[in-house]
Each structure stands twice: as structure tokens, then as C-alpha cells.
Amino acid sequence: MILRHLLLPEILELLQEGRLNELREFLAQQPAPEIAELLTAIADQDRVLLFRVLPRHLADDVFSLLEPPVQNRLLEEMAQEEVRHVLAKLPPDDRTALFEELPARVTQGLLGLLNEQDRKKALTLLSYPSHSVGRLMTDRYVKVRPEWSVAQAMDHLRKTGFDSETMTMIYITDDKGRLTDDLRLRKLLLADPSARVADLLDGHFACLQSLQDQEEAVQVFQKYDLYALPVVDADGILLGIVTVDDILDVAEEEATEDFHKLATVRPLQVSLKEATLGLLFRKRIGWLLGLVVVNIFTGMGIKIFEVTIAKLAALVALLPLLIGSGGNAGAQAATLVVRAIATGEIGTGDWWRIFLREIGVSLCIGLAMASAAFFLGWMLGSLQIAVIVAISMVAVVVMGSLTGILLPMGLNRLRLDPATASVPLITSVADILGVLIYFSIATAILAF
User: Fold this and answer.
1) What are phi and psi of 144, to 5 degrees?
2) pLDDT digits (tens, 9 = 90+) for 417-434
3) Which of the residues 65, 266, 367, 414 could staple to 36 if both were Cys, CB 3.0 to 4.6 A apart?
């Protein structure tokens, strides 16, 4: 944040005046994340020049921290040899993330710039299904054999560990490459050099499956609280590791997607700052048009009870209060349930208990709101109106709340994203039910 907000004018001035050596010396002393944020904030033409000023080792680190759209724009402005070097230095998982965001034609061209080994790695990772753990893997890890001595294992780490993404955990494989255990580096460092690696193992380890959904991987990381987890195939062969920085990106994307869906916005693939007018229109208009159709039923419900409304016009004045309360109660319940499903807090075995508890909670909320609605109905109408409003308030709040939990649970049971049960959809359904409940109760009471 310091570079972007305090030193940006000075940096741009050095850039425009051509004082590149001074700029290079200054940037060489700055942390890579700060420079990456700075590059994101400046214009494209300045971004390319500033990136080329960076020392080679720093440029590699900075590039890996940029978002794929920014990386793509930089690559478009670079010479072929520059692109070749940048792609070669990218970690395999970051390179896969970049290729995922690019058109197939562009990806094909970039793959052609890689050497045979890197190209094979990239194609292997891209062959995994979208949003699977395999897309997040890196092969930069350290593995040792159980029959080795601690001294042999340490020698192996010194020779091969320089290119590892993390050294906090060492992985143990058998002669067929199957993962058999993991070992914290600290335990290895403190062990007797003559001891065998097998003597340090406890046989307990956590791992991910290569075809496992990335969202499930987030829950595994939360459960075991590790910096990295190994990835295996169906036969238990160690394929790579996934680090927590990649999982944090997945968690952020999933949370953002759920927020968008809850507001009936189709998930954006770019930041809001970079989204065009046309993109935002396309992402938002579909659901809104659908909700227009849904809300037609609210008007039809009101039309059905024209006779009741004609008898007591004061009922209409209190209609927004009731249907708004039902919609808000449903939105609260839906938000809690969708988030609990997304984080794995509740499963299918918990649904019946959640449902029964929600009946009790919504009934208490409905009774509390009914007491306030009773006096409001009495003030605006009569005792008869007050009774109608109070009873309706309880029924509407309970019905709205149950709708708010049943719809996400039903979608999850059908293996659909429960976040699709968006707040506007819940409130629209609650509006329709609220109108029918309110005027049905009013009609029944007025009949006596």
C-alpha cells in the first residue's frame, strides 16, 4: 500500500523522465507484493516499462503475484524471449491459472514457447477437470524414502530442496511412488543423523485427491490447519502438493461467487473495477427479468382477494409490512444455511434438526413481531385489523423462514449450488406466500 498511495507520483515521474537506473535501484529494495499492487494500479503503457525496469529475479516474483488479466496484458506487450523466460519461471500452478484465463488460441501459442518438460507439465495440469484439485498442484516438493537415514534425507534436501515451494513438510513414498506418510521438517532436523526416517513416522497423514473439488479442498485445509497438503491419484501415487496460498485464492473466489449468487448476480470472472458496462448488464439482467415474472404471481394473489380488500381497505396499508417481514426472515435463514452448507458445517444428516429448530426460532420471532404489528394494526384500523395482522405476521414469518432454509437444502440435495437460492428469489417467493396467507386469514376472520 505504501508504494501505491505515497510514492506512486514520484515513481511515475522517474519513469517519464527516463531515470530508469534510479528507479531500478529503488524498486530492487521493495517487496514483491507492493510492486505487484503498484503495477495493477498504473496504465498499461507505464506498466510494461516499469516491469522491464525490475531486476530479473524480482520481476519473476512480481509476475507470479499479478492477477491473470494483468499478466495477459503484460505478455501481449513483451517480446517473445521475455515471454518465454517469464513463463518458464512461473510455478506450475500459477502458470495453469494463467492459461485457464486465456483464450485457447493464445494458450496454444504460449505453450509453444515452453520447453518440452514444462509443456508436458502444463498440459498435464490443464487435463484435469476445471475446479479440481489437480489444477492447483505444483510438483515443487521434497520426498524421501523411509529406509534412508536422517543424514541421507538431509543431504537429499540440500540437493533438491532449493526449488521446492515449501520445506515445512517432507513426504515419504515407497518404491512405487505411493504416498505412505509425511514428516515435519523440524522433526527431521532434531533427529539423530544415524536414525532411520521410518523410525520418525507415525503413519498418520492427510491428503487430497487429484479429482477432488477445490471447494472440498478448502474444508480439508481448514480441518488440518496445514501450510501444504499432498495430492494423490486413485492408486495413492503422489502427484504434487497444494499450498495454502492457492487455497486462499479458491476460498476467496468461492465466497465471492456465493455473495454474487445470493444477490442474483451471475459470478464475475474479473474484478468489479475492470468489468465493462456490457458485462455487468449481462450478469445482472437475467435474474431480474426472471424475478419480474415471479412477482406477477404476487399481483395475481392480490387480485384474487379484491372482495376482501374492498371490505377493509386498511388491509392494503399493512401489506408491505407483512410481506417485507416474511421476505427479510427468509433472507436471514437462507444466508445462514447457504453459508453453513458452503463451509461444511451442516450436512444431510443435520437437516431435520435444523428444520425443527428453525420452526421454533421463526415462531418466537413471529410472535415478537406480531405484538408490535398488533398495536400498529389497531392504530391504523380496528381491533379486527389488529388481530388479522398479528396472526398473519406469525404465519408469514414462519413460512418465510422455512422457505429460506428448505430451498437451499433442496438444491443441495439435487447437487445444485445452494447459493442459487438467492435472497431476491427467497423474498419473491415469500412475497407471494405472504399475500396469499394474509388475505386468506383476513377472509376467514371477516367471514365470522
Assistant:
1) -135, 170
2) 776 656 777 888 888 888
3) 65
